[in-house]
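Researcher: Let's run the pair from yesterday's discussion. Sequence first, then tokens, for each.
Model: Starting with the first of the pair.
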Amino acid sequence: MKIGLVAHDNRKEDLIQWIEYNAKLFAHHELICTGTTGRMVIEALDHKLVSPIHVRRLKSGPLGGDQELGALICNDEIDIMIFLWDPMSMQPHDVDVKALLRLAVLYNIPTACNRSTADFIISSKLFGGEYHRIKKDYSEYIHRKV
């Protein structure tokens, strides 16, 4: 599975603690992270595991990383997204954050915005197994006459 990981500044430590706690679970998965989050994930996992986990870093969120992750969602290259966002702070790239969450919903990507939901996702019997998301057919919408 390809797991997208994003965390706002005030939530990065939460995500790192969660990743460290569940490190063995991610051994057979690819983690795709926005910039600083990716660096922190790599550093956290470096000392946790004998075999390295594949971590792909995108640009920092405000520099287009959220949009890069959104493009991966559109191209069926993300299976799950864990996005610990900070509901108490305005982000300079709030429109990108909203667009990313919109794409996750549009493409029916299981998405966690807090640790509890992330725990439910990774403890599901569907996690790590073969799962075929139902993808809505938008062809009627695309071909509508305006």
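Model: Moving on to the second of the pair.
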Amino acid sequence: MKLKRISQEPRRAWGHAPGCAAGIRCVQRASERSGTAFSLLEVMIAMAIFFMAVFSILALVSNGLRNASLLLEMPVDAGMLAAELAETNRLEEGVDSGDFGDIFPDYKWVRQVTEVGSNGLYQVDFAVIRQVRGRQVESRMSILLYRPGAGQARPGMPRR
């Protein structure tokens, strides 16, 4: 560090570079400063970047928790009814309805069975209806089931 002698004024506590002799005022050039401190602008930019990162992480965690809570709600699907019906061997044409009991207390279901062909091919239409806030259809499904011995033989038509 190069120091330049200015005058013989008494030394004050401020305004002197470290290492100056007593009674001599020293001036330090700007290029020779050590630069160990941060400027206010640098601190503000660093804090802005930090807070943007923190708020991004908080938003990510919040969305993850919301999505996890949505996964806990079990959706009501007509596929449950279709799976139950697929286990049976007999089908009868007509409309049937019911509810899900205590599992889904606000939901009802309707099933309509129609024979598509005389060979035992049936079309089954399901609808799951939520009873809260009026009648609102939640889920619909239509499947085809082949049950050759399911229905009664029609008069004049032998069963194959």
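Researcher: Give me one sentence on the second I can quote.
Model: Helices lie at 40-72, 79-86.
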